[in-house]
Amino acid sequence: MKWIFVSYTVPANPSRARVFIWRELRKLGAINYQTVWVLPYSKDISDKIQNLKKVIENCGGQALLVEGKVSNKQEEEKVIII
C-alpha cells in the first residue's frame, strides 16, 4: 500500500496556525504516528497535502512530504491499527 508521510514545524505563535494545520490533517484522515503524520495515498489527498504545505510555509514553517511504502507488513499494521 502506498502512503503519504508528512512532517512539519511551524512557529509556536500564533497558535491558530498550528491548530488549523492539525485540524486539516485530521479532516484528511491523517494519523499521527510518533512524529510523522501518515495518510493513505490518493491523488486527491496528495493535492490537498501540497496545498497544506503552502499554508505551513506561509506561516513561517517547514514541511517534508514523502510518498512511499512502509518497509514491511508488521510496520504497516502499526499504522493501520492506530
3D architecture notes:
The chain has helices at 15-27, 43-58, 73-81; strands at 3-9, 31-33, 36-40, 62-68. 16% of the residues are buried. The model has no long low-confidence stretch (mean pLDDT 90). The chain has 3 helices and 4 strands. A 4-stranded antiparallel sheet has the order 2-3-1-4, with helices on one face. The protein has a single domain, classed as Alpha-Beta Plaits (2-Layer Sandwich), CATH 3.30.70. With 82 residues, it is α+β, with helices and mostly antiparallel strands.
Topology:
Blueprint: E1 3-9, H1 15-27, E2 31-33, E3 36-40, H2 43-58, E4 62-68, H3 73-81
Antiparallel strand pairs: 1-3, 1-4, 2-3
